[in-house]
């Protein structure tokens, strides 16, 4: 009986991921494939320098790893402010 619930749980998780991807409710890192637990932003200039057009969604860990490979060392802060540039429009 325990195996049935475990398999059902895995199936439900898979369905939720498929729905989330198709409806764009959930974003996934294009490098490691993990769900994005937080919404975060990097300045456009920094993003272009680190990513070089390879991906459009990255988790903070993968972004940091790519930056370190290019000898760019980052530090993270929490902020209520948001970049209001045309490439990052404010959410309603």
Which whole number gives the mean pLDDT?
Answer: 76
Quickly count the helices.
3
Task: Estimate the strand proportion.
Answer: under 5%
Give the tally of structural domains: 1
Structural class computed from helices and strand pairing = mainly alpha
Helix content: 40-55%
Shape type: elongated
Low-confidence runs (pLDDT<50, min 5 residues)?
88-92
| Major sheet attributes | none
Radius of gyration: 17 Å
Distance between the termini: 46 Å
Tally of DSSP β-strands: 0
H/E series, N to C? HHH
Description:
The protein is mainly alpha-helical and 92 residues long. The chain has one domain. Helix content is 42%, strand content 0%. It contains 3 helices and no strands. It has helices spanning 2-22, 44-51, 60-69. The protein is elongated and about 50 Å long. Residues 88-92 have low confidence and may be disordered.
Secondary structure layout plus pairing:
Blueprint: H1 2-22, H2 44-51, H3 60-69
């Amino acid at each position: 009986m325990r195996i049935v619930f475990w398999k059902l749980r895995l199936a439900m998780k898979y369905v939720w991921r498929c729905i989330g991807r198709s409806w764009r409710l959930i974003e996934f890192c294009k490098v490691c494939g993990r769900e994005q637990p937080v919404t975060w932003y990097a300045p456009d200039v920094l993003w272009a320098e680190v990513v070089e057009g390879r991906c459009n969604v990255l988790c903070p860990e993968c972004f940091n790893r790519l930056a370190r490979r290019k000898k760019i060392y980052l530090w993270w802060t929490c902020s209520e402010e948001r970049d209001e540039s045309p490439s990052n429009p404010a959410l309603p």
